[in-house]
Amino acid sequence: MNSATGIVAVATEAGVSVSTVSQVLSGKRPVSAATRSRVEAAIEKLNYRPHPGARSLRSQRTESVALIVPDITNPFYPLVAVGIQDILMPQGYLLSVNDVALPSRTVSETLRHVLARRVDGIVLTTYGCTPADLELIAQSGTQVVALGQDIGVSGSDYVDVDEAAGIGSVVEHLLGNGFRRIAFVGGEREDFTSSLRHSGYREALLSAGLGVDDELSVFTSFTRDGGAAGARRLLELDTLPDAIVCANDLIAIGVIDALRARGISIPGTVAVTGYDDIEAAGLITPALTTVDNPAREIGRTSARLLLDRLNGSVDNVTRHVRLSQHLVIRESSTVVPH
Amino acid sequence: MNSATGIVAVATEAGVSVSTVSQVLSGKRPVSAATRSRVEAAIEKLNYRPHPGARSLRSQRTESVALIVPDITNPFYPLVAVGIQDILMPQGYLLSVNDVALPSRTVSETLRHVLARRVDGIVLTTYGCTPADLELIAQSGTQVVALGQDIGVSGSDYVDVDEAAGIGSVVEHLLGNGFRRIAFVGGEREDFTSSLRHSGYREALLSAGLGVDDELSVFTSFTRDGGAAGARRLLELDTLPDAIVCANDLIAIGVIDALRARGISIPGTVAVTGYDDIEAAGLITPALTTVDNPAREIGRTSARLLLDRLNGSVDNVTRHVRLSQHLVIRESSTVVPH
DNA sequence: CTCCTCACGCATAACGTTTTGCGTCGCCTC
DNA sequence: GAGGCGACGCAAAACGTTATGCGTGAGGAG
């Protein structure tokens, strides 16, 4: 019914040897034009497609790449995924998207899962990655491109944006608009991205000659619910902040939920800012001031770095690409208080 | 450095034959406890992991499934993806997510790509699927679960929601609120989902005893920009509609963009409704009346259907699961006009 | 005419599994 | 003590590729 057996069927049909068919396919050895066309005719006639399993058995490559993300439901990550596809799919690679946030799944499990499948490369969101995981990666020999930080595995590249500068520009913008008591709601406390954004916040305040009140920093999770929980903690303070800088847009949206539930006007009483510039940031009321995070370009760049490695054209230095971003000013921070 | 050669290394290490190791792994034949533990020790010691390529060479299965979606950037689809992962990942399957909307990519190409990789099954969004594509699927013998419509391939299942009823409930709600001149903005004209939602709209009007004015139906694409374009066409009419029913939330958001750009108040002058209940629907101002579309459950269901097939426990009837949904009433439709 | 050199094609040996038909051994039954 | 039977383990044959070392003509150089 369907595609006939394999390369030997093609060889028989074309009256040549198996190796010749293989050579026609790979082009690694010269084949006369006449033979080539006989083989091609046979391939066409039998509707032959090479068996990727057999191929990978020989070559020890699977022509597939895994993307590991903390939460594909965060609209930032699908964009990363399409960026990767932009580059990888034309080369015949298959991209598998693996979401860690499935019920009670961990990075280690997910990593084991994709390593067991012998993917050629991994684009890894570092969130939740333990030293044991890095050890696993290192000894597996699989190529990895990290998103957001250097994972310190030899021969692995990473791509990031200047998080501290990004958050810094948000804080400066708020200061410029007269906000002074500026709070911060981060993601998971141990998360690297979260702490980068937190230091950016601290440094911006310090370099403006202001003090940093630790009471004004809370950590939660990179989700809408997390943001709401964080905001409620800030609302217990004796004196409210007049602005809340959030580590991503989802958190900011949650913060807005919580403030609004308390009847607090935004930005009249408290300004709120986000990070990533997901689509919802422009839709919510008030529209969210945020930092655009070039997700698709991050995906493309990481795929290119990975591809270089897979083609073996890189020595084992660690390469680092830093993409640029810019502040997006919207309503949630524009009104000057009092 | 890394995981040693293969099953024969394990066999040697444990002092047994290759087949015995295989039997320990698969459990398809009894193995004495003593032997089993020697083998397990060897596996542990050598950090052995079976080679999936070799395995699939024998078994003719890849333990992988492809999801083909029109646009992963539409927040509906990532949810479908995690739903599929919920079911498939625990079984050791790898899910590859394939976005058709990459620059100038077609369903046929994407299909060929995943079929060439010999995936065991495909979860297919029918959007943009030609008869030739279906032919390709049928003769490949790959298991397919379709989303949204029966693709008519023997032995393929599909899962959908009652689109017509969903849109119908929107229209009834609008009629109940006094809206009378109700327009419709669809996705691509030839898209099946789009036309289902369109018929739902027509039928609801007819069964309420109202006429259907074809001038009030426009088709565009399932995106925000598409929605804006559609709205602009409606705005050229001599008399404005007083409500616009959109085929999905993205379109509705675009419609709101366009209306707002013309200074038209929503829902005061024109009400707008969406479909899917993506997160942004609750965030935009005015919050969007819409129909919740159980994306994650759609993913889970389709994965279960696929798994049944892959386990061979189904004869070749076409199974159909219809999931339920409900109207979500928000501000964009609640004000009664005049 | 002989020898060398290409250009082309072939046979064969991996690659790492799973499956299946056969031993072999020990023990039970009569 | 003979026969039978279970339980366990092994060898070998696939599965479909790609890489590699050789063979064989044809044609050119001497």
UniProtKB/TrEMBL annotation, chains A, B:
Give the InterPro entries listed for this entry: HTH_LacI (IPR000843), LacI/GalR-like_sensor (IPR046335), Lambda_DNA-bd_dom_sf (IPR010982), Peripla_BP_I (IPR028082)
Keyword terms of this UniProt record: DNA-binding, Transcription, Transcription regulation
Domain (HTH lacI-type) spans 5-59
Annotated signal peptide = none
Keyword Transcription annotated? yes
Q: Mind telling me what this protein is named?
A: HTH lacI-type domain-containing protein
